[in-house]
């Protein structure tokens, strides 16, 4: 049926009415759903933005607190180190006098002649001690038990009085420069504990007033019991020192002369043969110097810092912090000659502070502290100050003070709250605009539906009539729609469809046969490609398995590593893929031993092939008797360079060798740092950057190769590794690093090479955790039996 569609009035059951109802309702529903989703997305975006901004600001605030704590801890450490340096300088002068008795006597005689007030003593009947008169640079006190029947110093004591006067030359300069010090002094050995202090004070008189009975007991036992004996133990065995440093500091105590809380720093002096203690050099600083650094800590409005001993005793804190942490002060009057300050975290009225752990750094901690009956959240971070030797009424022990920074969370998060308020305000404004846009869209859509319904329905009716005729298998039907819109295009498409249906109906069987043949051809082609892909996968898998097997076969056997009587050798290698690019080998030729380690760029089959080339060429050169370390690397590079050019492998490697003939250990080639742990626990690191260049880059590298001789004695350990060890990452993206590797090596010093390798690998795997291993890992330990 051809022709124009007839006009129909709008009735409730008419197509136009249904069109308006259905299309208008659908559009209305779509607008409501879209608008609702838009509003929901805005709210969700607001929440997500608030969360992201909050996390970012919180992380930045916490990083600021951590950085502040780090810098303050560094200031405390710097102050202590400056005092250590000044005491070490004074001790160096006095130790030089002890080591050269003739010069010591000459210097003492010269000072006695030029500064008689420094050595001329007067006996005090009441105190039963002798002391030089005011006017000298230093005060010299000699106790009654060091005087003879004539109240004059014994001859050996007189000699110490003269020689110790060198303090007058050195102490004034040290007191004037460097860290601010209260006083510096020399104390004689236990059998002659004379006491010389600069600047001059009423030293003995003050001791009589504050420490009755001190003149009847040995100075060291009365004031510092156990300290002298600890030093004597160090003289016998230096490994008994808690910290590898001779400086010993005291816990804070009340100074007899100034009445201030001070910390004393002692440096023991040794006899010329280093078998006994010959006295001590020392310096005092007031606790105010440490406290000022800590009390000046101010984070946000009321954040503060504190400095505490490992037992929880707080030695520095401001009054606000003391109240916030609920600390109670008490003077410790026990002991003999010194009075300490007790203000312990463990006795805090705040349970969270009483349970605060200081044994190790734990990053940011969140605590609730009681204030005016309310629980207030605080952020606490604790940083360790470098450990020192500490005396506190007994043997010397290790002490690592902790610096804490405490900040109320509400202050550190103030910027977060402000940002969240701004985001909420912006969100509300966007929601209002969105609602207005939805209402406007509803109005426009309603008008458009009514306007378009009249034009659209006539064409749709014609399409419906034509569809009924096609249903009745009248494929000759055509519709005439004159409109130039989508309905008109639909009419044209309907007519084309009718033509195609007519054509395909008449030629259906032929089209089915052609399509079936095409499908069969495609299936056969796909089957052929699948078979080729399977064969290629099997071939590549076989090649990788063979390469992996060959790589493992050329590694040194366990029994080869046990052939060396004077050396323990242990190794571990783990490739990141089936075939790795790391290289290590242990080659023996007669009495000569060559240990190599290298790292090919990248990993996989090509890296593994280049590693096998290195092993083969190195073995050949070793068997050929090439004993010159520089020529060995030069010849190896020449051979590999030619193979790399031939095979077009775009790879090179870092490579280093250790040559050992039973006497000398020679290092050559460029690779990672070599770690050496001496028998006494000292760790050395050797940078190999100047000992060569990567292998395979140049045809001739003889001008770049250098050697480095390493002293290798009984009990020493050499650790070789590839960057897969130090650059391994944990789940936080942190690197294992050289410092952690050195700490593990020093911790395991003294164990067998196998045990050292296995323990370091265990620590490395624990550090990596579930993180993927991105690079080959190789570790090799050589220990002198």
Q: Percent of residues in beta strands?
A: 15-25%
Tally of strands: 28
Name of the top-level CATH class of one domain: Alpha Beta
Name the helicity range. 40-55%
Task: Give the C-alpha Rg.
Answer: 44 Å
Helical run tally: 20
What's the story with the biggest beta sheet?
A: 13 strands, mixed
Description:
- The chain is of the alpha+beta class and 785 residues long.
- The protein has 20 helices and 28 strands.
- It has a domain at 554-784: Phosphatase 2c, domain 1.
- Helix content is 46%, strand content 20%.
- Strands 1, 2, 3, 4, 5, 6, 7, 8, 9, 12, 13, 16 and 17 form a 13-stranded mixed sheet that branches. The protein has a five-stranded antiparallel sheet with strand order 11-10-18-15-14. A five-stranded antiparallel sheet has the order 19-28-27-24-25.
- Mean pLDDT is 84; it is low at 1-6 and 331-337.
């Amino acid at each position: 049926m051809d022709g124009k569609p007839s006009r129909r009035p709008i009735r409730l059951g008419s197509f136009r009415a249904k069109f308006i109802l259905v299309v208008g309702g659908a559009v209305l529903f779509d607008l409501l759903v879209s608008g609702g989703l838009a509003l929901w997305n805005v709210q969700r975006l607001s929440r997500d933005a608030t969360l992201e901004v909050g996390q970012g600001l919180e992380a930045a605030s916490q990083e600021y607190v951590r950085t502040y704590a780090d810098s303050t801890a560094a200031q405390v450490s710097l102050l202590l180190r400056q005092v250590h340096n000044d005491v070490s300088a004074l001790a160096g002068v006095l130790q030089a006098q002890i080591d050269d008795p003739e010069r010591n006597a000459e210097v003492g005689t010269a000072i006695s002649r030029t500064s008689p007030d420094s050595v001329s003593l007067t006996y005090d009947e009441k105190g039963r001690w002798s002391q030089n008169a005011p006017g000298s640079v230093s005060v010299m006190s000699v106790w009654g038990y060091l005087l003879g029947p004539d109240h004059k110093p014994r001859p050996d004591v007189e000699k110490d009085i003269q020689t110790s006067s060198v303090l007058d030359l050195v102490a004034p300069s040290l007191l004037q420069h460097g860290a601010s010090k209260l006083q510096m002094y020399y104390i004689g050995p236990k059998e002659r504990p004379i006491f010389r202090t600069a600047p001059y004070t009423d030293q003995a008189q003050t001791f009589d007033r504050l420490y009755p009975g001190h003149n009847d007991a040995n100075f060291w036992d009365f004031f510092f019991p156990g300290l002298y004996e600890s030093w004597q133990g160090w003289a016998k065995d230096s490994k008994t020192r808690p910290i590898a440093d001779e400086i010993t500091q005291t816990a804070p105590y009340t100074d007899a002369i100034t009445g201030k809380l001070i910390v004393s720093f002692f440096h023991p002096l040794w006899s010329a043969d280093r078998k006994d203690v010959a006295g001590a050099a020392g310096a005092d600083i007031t606790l105010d110097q440490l406290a000022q650094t800590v009390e000046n800590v101010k984070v946000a409005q009321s954040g503060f810092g504190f400095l505490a001993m490992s037992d929880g005793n707080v030695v520095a804190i401001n009054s606000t912090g003391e109240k916030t942490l609920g600390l109670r002060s008490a003077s410790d009057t026990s002991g003999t000659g010194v009075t300490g300050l007790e203000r312990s975290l463990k006795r805090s009225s705040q349970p969270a502070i009483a349970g605060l752990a200081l044994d190790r750094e734990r990053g940011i901690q969140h605590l609730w502290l009681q204030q005016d009956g309310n629980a207030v959240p605080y952020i606490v971070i604790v940083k360790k100050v470098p450990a020192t030797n500490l005396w506190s009424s007994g043997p010397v022990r290790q002490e690592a003070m902790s610096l804490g920074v405490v900040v109320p969370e509400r202050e550190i998060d103030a910027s977060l709250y402000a940002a969240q308020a701004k985001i909420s305000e912006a969100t509300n404004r966007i929601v209002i605009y969105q609602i207005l846009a939805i209402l406007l869209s509803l109005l426009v859509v309603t008008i458009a539906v009514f306007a378009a319904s009249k034009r659209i329905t006539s064409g749709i009716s014609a399409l419906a009539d034509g569809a009924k005729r096609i249903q009745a298998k009248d494929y000759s039907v055509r519709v005439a729609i004159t409109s130039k819109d989508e309905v008109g295009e639909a009419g044209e498409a309907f007519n084309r469809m009718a033509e195609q249906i007519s054509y395909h109906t008449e030629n259906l069987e032929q089209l089915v046969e052609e399509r079936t043949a095409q499908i069969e051809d495609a299936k056969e082609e796909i089957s052929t490609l699948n078979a080729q892909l399977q064969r290629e996968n099997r071939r590549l898998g076989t090649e990788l398995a063979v390469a992996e097997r060959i790589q493992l076969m050329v590694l040194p056997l366990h029994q080869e590593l046990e052939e060396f009587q004077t050396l323990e050798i242990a190794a571990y290698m783990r490739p990141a893929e089936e075939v790795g690019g790391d290289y290590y080998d242990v080659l023996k030729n007669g009495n000569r031993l060559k240990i190599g380690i290298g790292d090919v760029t990248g990993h996989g089959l090509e890296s593994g092939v280049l590693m096998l080339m290195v092993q083969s060429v190195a073995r050949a050169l070793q068997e050929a008797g090439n004993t010159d370390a520089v020529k060995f690397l030069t010849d190896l590079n020449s051979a590999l360079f030619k193979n790399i050019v031939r095979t077009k492998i775009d790879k090179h490697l870092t490579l280093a060798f250790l040559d050992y003939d039973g006497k000398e250990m020679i290092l050559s080639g460029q690779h990672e740092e070599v770690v050496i742990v001496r028998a006494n626990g000292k760790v050395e690191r050797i940078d190999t950057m100047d000992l060569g260049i990567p292998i395979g880059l140049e045809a001739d590298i003889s001008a770049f190769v250098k050697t480095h001789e390493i002293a290798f004695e009984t009990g020493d350990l050499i650790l070789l590794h590839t960057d897969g060890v130090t650059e391994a990452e944990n789940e936080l993206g942190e690197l294992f690093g050289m410092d952690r590797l050195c700490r593990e090596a020093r911790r395991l010093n003294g164990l067998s090479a196998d045990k050292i390798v296995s323990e370091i690998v265990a620590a490395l795997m624990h550090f990596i955790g579930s993180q993927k291993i991105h690079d080959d890992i190789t570790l090799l330990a050589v220990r002198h039996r």
